[in-house]
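Blinded run. Sample ID left blank on purpose so nobody reads anything into the name before looking at the predicted structure. Input follows.
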Amino acid sequence: MYKPKDCNTPVSPNPHQVFVIGDSHALAYSGLFKSFAIKTQTTIYAYNNGGCPFLSFTPERDMDVARCQQYSDSSLQDIAKRIKPDDVLFLASLRLPRFVDQWAYFGDKQHADVLFSEKAEKGRERTINYAKLTLKPFADKGVHIVFEAPKPLF
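Blinded prediction complete.
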């Protein structure tokens, strides 16, 4: 949780909160969250689980991994208890496959399969259906839902 504390010149707290759920790509915003919390007196709840994206559109990386799905489910349950109308739900996760990471080169064919195969299309369809079902209660409550555009991958 990011929350201003012991500020020299405190201002009125922001009545709206920010909730963040995602993998290490969500955690990459830590510095920004700290600065935003201080400057705007906003409380930010961060639910980060490295290696477990939320709504990655490749279910084999999140929805089909039991520990990732359990983490997402428990995070969403906690968020649902705390979130109010006009709060923000920020979804930041790795959503594009990499050509390479720190351990391996995946190759053009594997990359194309992850993006353009029939399996990939069905996976995106599953994720969209799951997202609609999962996020609708938040939208119905008046929560502002923000999807992060993918960060550049080098």
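Unblinding after everyone has recorded impressions. The chain is about 40% helix and 10% strand.
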